[in-house]
Amino acid sequence: MIKQYLNVLLAGFLILSTQLPSFSQHNPKPIPALVSKNGRHTLIVDGKPFLILGAQMWNSSGWPDILDKTWPQLKELHCNTLEVPVYWENIEKEQGKYDFADLDKLILDARRENIRLVLLWFASFKNGSSQYIPVWMKENTKQYPRMLNAGGQPIQVQATISENNRNADAKAFAAVMAHIREIDEAHRTVIMMQVENEPGSLGTDRDYSPEATRLFNGQVPAKLLSALKKKPGTWQQVFGFDAPETFSAYYMAQYIDHVAAEGKKQYPLPMYVNAWLRENRFERAGEHPSGGPTSNMIDVYKAVAPDIDLLAVDIYNRNYVQFRDLCEKYARPDNALLVPETGKGMLFARFHFYAIGDYNAIGVAPYGVDPFHGDPHDQRDKTKLDEKFAAIASNYRLLQPAIPLITSLQGTGKLKAAVEEEGLGEKLLHFSNYDLLVTFGFPSYKTIKEPTGRVLVGETGPDEFYLMGFDAKFQFRPRLGSGYSASEFIYVEEGTFEQGTWKRRRIWNGDEVYHSTLTPDGVILKVKLRGLQSDQYNTKPNFEQ
């Protein structure tokens, strides 16, 4: 089944690649692409399915002096991708003159370290404001206007209705993409671009400038009405209470889409926009960045921003129900799930399994991997990876060899996650012929008090499974109605993958099978079963404890 799916997926990618600009057609390494088919989404890198097991730098850490000290820690993390900002204010310090020295060093160093890059374009919008625009824009607000709040006061957010703002950003971004193509087309170190960062307007629900207000009081554009299946009217008439935020989202999405489109003309890497959540506090536009790709504005972005390949979601919520709810909102048939920012620690190491196993995420990454962010109270050894990332490093070490298996099963219903939470000590998973009960919380295996159990389970055949995870006990039984009363192991192999091929390290038997427990250090098991009728066994099998 895996081979059949990969063949279909890669055939679709080959069709897509013939439609790309000519500069990619003769490269032995195909350009990275996001392939979507029948609601399934796969990131393709070097012609193969890829899963981002990433890390993101702090906002002001995309500089050579800091990056030079960070590469060894990324190796400790076992990540395959670094998400790192590139700054418009640094690249175009003088209008029309581009300095790519720092960008060049970043790409060359990542290539040396065999780490892929997702570049974060910190430009017109960053966390609901416009701090990263060049000085020459900051000092000329007449030509490059800002939004006004409801009191008529300018705020530090570039006006999205301004063509000057939009075109300046798009011109710089196009120059960046042309340069990346020039130095990286043969290597594909850079695999994806984030266009802006958590865009929107903090401090106002919309732009209240005279021109923006005139547009707000006018008719909603027909394109948006058609996409959302709304009747004609003014913004207030059509969207009511949500009118200011929807108005903001429409112009923000158009603005960013234009920037992305100009960049893709030079080098069409997959491009995304990330969201600052609205699911906090009072959920009021302006208290979160109004007009960003929040969960209630996804349809607006989909309607007017065709060059944005996906809308990503940054999740720091520490409640697993909220985490899963957000994944549910962003994992859509028309939108691949990417979680480019999360918290760190064991909690988010567990949450990553939900994203990958239950919501088919194309990537996850904790934020703030480098220790050089200027915290005067941080006295730890900054030459080593922060221990808060240890659990995520264990995830990445275990899962990275299994990426071909994981990506082949995502979206098929045959990859599932079981995760331990406070008050949640077991999880029952249903597969084609078997039910699998995963249980957690065994004192003899616990070295820390918080929940640690997390498992990905992949069904690769009617009686064959892979279990990948930590701190969990497992029991299989045939599904009710299957005609079988119990099951037994044909074999349980411990191993890993090398170049996509399963390599057995040892066979489990005796006590290991009796206890059927994934270890705290993490393990991958290949399990083969067979069903038993009641007359085929005399005693209760050892593994059904």
UniProtKB/TrEMBL annotation:
InterPro entries: DUF5597, GH, Glyco_hydro_42, Glyco_hydro_42_N
GO cellular component, one term: beta-galactosidase complex
One function term, GO molecular function aspect: beta-galactosidase activity
Domain DUF5597: from-to ranges: 393-513
Highest taxon of source: Bacteria
SUPFAM superfamilies reported in the protein's UniProt record: (Trans)glycosidases
Tagged with keyword Hydrolase: yes
BP terms from Gene Ontology: carbohydrate metabolic process
Glycoside hydrolase family 42 N-terminal domain ranges (all copies): 65-223
Pfam families cross-referenced by the UniProt entry: DUF5597, Glyco_hydro_42
Keyword annotations from UniProtKB, A to Z: Glycosidase, Hydrolase
PANTHER family according to UniProt: BETA-GALACTOSIDASE GANA
Protein name: DUF5597 domain-containing protein
